[in-house]
Write a structure and sequence with these properties.
- The structure is a single chain.
- The protein is mainly α.
- The protein has a domain of 60 residues.
- 83% of the residues lie in helices and 0% in strands.
- It has four helices and no strands.
- The longest helix is centred in the middle third of the chain and has 30 residues.
- It starts with a helix and ends with a helix.
């Protein structure tokens, strides 16, 4: 006789196929992956900027310039990604 845990596992496994991404949804999933990568970059940039503020490894004006560079680099990575996507779709 099957235990309730075994029946639950068997029942759950029958629901997997609809959860598997189809190739028709590839663009949607790619957008999600890009968005998550951008958010991770934003978190990383925020951490770097916070570290500059806490450690103060230089003059304040230089630290602001470095913080701006961190945000600019993140922004440029997004622009570069868009250019790549555009050139691939042509």
């Amino acid at each position: 006789m099957a235990s309730s845990r075994t029946r639950a596992a068997a029942s759950a496994s029958t629901s997997w196929p609809p959860l598997v991404p189809a190739s028709a949804n590839a663009a949607h999933y790619a957008r999600i992956v890009r968005e998550m990568a951008t958010l991770r970059g934003l978190i990383r940039a925020g951490g770097e900027i916070a570290q500059l503020g806490w450690e103060r490894p230089g003059e304040t004006t230089d630290l602001v310039d470095r913080a701006e560079q961190v945000v600019f680099d993140l922004s440029q990575a997004r622009v570069y990604e868009r250019v790549q996507l555009t050139s691939r779709s042509c």
